[in-house]
Amino acid sequence: MGVRAEITAYLRDEIGAIDKEAPESVALVYPSPYRVAMSSLGYQTIYRTINSIDGMAAHRAFLPDDIEAWRHSGMPLVTYERLRPVSDYPVIAFSVAYETELAGLIETLELSGIPPLASDRTSRHPIVFAGGPLTFSNPLPLAPFVDAIVMGEADQSIHPVLRAIFDCDSRDSALRTLAAHPHVFVSGLHGDILPPIDKADSQKLPAFSQIITPHTELRNMFLVEPERGCHRGCTYCVMRRSTNDGMRVVKKERVLSLVPDAAKRVGLVGAATTDHPQITEIVNALADTGREVGLSSLRADRLTDDLVAALRRGGHRILTTASDGSSQRMRDAIQRGTSEEQLRRAALLARRHGLKRLKLYLMVGLPGETDEDIDEMVEFGKELSSLIPLSLGVAPFVAKRNTPLDGEPFAGINLVDGRLQRLRRGVRGRVDVRATSARWAWVEYVLAQGGRAEGLAVLEAVKSGGRFSDWKRAFDALPADRSRRSLVRPGNRLGRATA
Ligand code: SF4
Questions:
Q1: How far is CA 201 from CA 151, 207, 439, in A?
Q2: Which domain holds residue 126?
Q3: Is the distance from the beta carbon of residue 237 to the nearest atom of ligand 1 less than 6 Å?
Q4: For all residues of the chain together, what is the average pLDDT?
Q5: Among 231, 234, 338, 403, which is best to mutate for testing ligand 1, by the most ligand atoms less than 8 A from CB?
Q6: Do 174 and 211 sit in the same domain of this protein?
Q7: Are 305 and 398 in a shared domain?
Q8: Same domain, yes or no, for 153 and 207?
Q9: Could you tell me if the CB of 272 is within 6 A of ligand 1?
Q10: Confidence at 6, pLDDT banded by 50, 70, 90
Q11: Is the CB–ligand 1 distance for residue 239 below 6 Å?
Q12: Edge-to-edge strand list for the sheet holding 292-295
């Protein structure tokens, strides 16, 4: 498919896109492909917010599905709403969710004909800033590529940030004005000191979809956030209670009032949706209208007979929850607050209500984990699979800034792969195991704990082709004394490992 045809095909199937022309316009860029971007509630919310401001418009652009095809087309990256080159806009705003999306940010700048390094740009280039979920932990590797970073929830700060940029008559004065904002990091003025993350006023909640499209992971689903944040204290989690004072709840009536008549599928999205005191009523109310209901982040201790029955009415076929630690010892160590008994009960509830499968998420490579912890999950997984078909979704542990486990080393690719093998071998024929890559988890780790130098290494990796070997070479070339960020080379094992 040609690059213009790709855009036309996506636009044709959208409901809710905003077609606004305004004197002040922003290219709102997502550094991953369209189908990922349009599943992002934060991206969709900022799109609507900017377009609701008098005299301002936001036009979307994405990392192309086929970057090479786009490059060969010779066409610069353009916005979907206007087919206007991204480089023509005075302001480019990126929404960044994950560490490895830095590569997409670099690629989109290059495809736009904009030098990726902020230091190579001049006053004729747009002002480039970033926000998004990554700013809750460690956006410092983005610093060489952007002029500013909006920290935390940008629901209300996006307006003054854009006003500051459009009202200033020069790039320098705009950046000085932004630097005075309590939640904006300006790369050239703030060194490596990040300001605190912002917290949106409760009146700004909930976030909800603007555009419904069949071309996302969550096909044709209207997303709404019945609560934001979490009051729990899992020590690996960026969204724990210490972030923005815990959970903020939106009343059932308000949530339901936002669901458009045309939405046949509704996704309730949030850090801890099952902790919403009215979650069962919300799911039932949606199911009563014949809608399919999706729910993120089900906590096993919150699963009741009524809630699982409501989920079944809302079309759930799989009950998904998390163990996170592979053993009770590990769950306790990370303060997960989930017991075997609760997980067993989740399996029984799923079976009782006719769901087809239980899916459990867990991490391997947590600090202090041993083979015995994996063996406990093997035995427990076999037990659960005798109650209901079981899948395990396994991710290597990556320590994040702004959490109590910040600074814990990466367990090592060999160790994580060894533990995965042990788990797979132990449950073979009984449990379906899907795991994310240990090698890319190591990349994520280096960036999660890294700074500007690690960010610059990503530029080298992208230039070299973006394969894992390119990333490894670029990170290995960093000075060896980069302290804790280079604690473990990718193949190493930790002292306590027995794998
Ligand atoms: S992992 Fe879930 S329950 Fe734990 S603190 Fe994070 S959002 Fe809350």
A1: 15, 12, 39
A2: 3-186
A3: yes
A4: 94
A5: 234
A6: no
A7: yes
A8: no
A9: yes
A10: confident
A11: yes
A12: 221-224, 265-268, 292-295
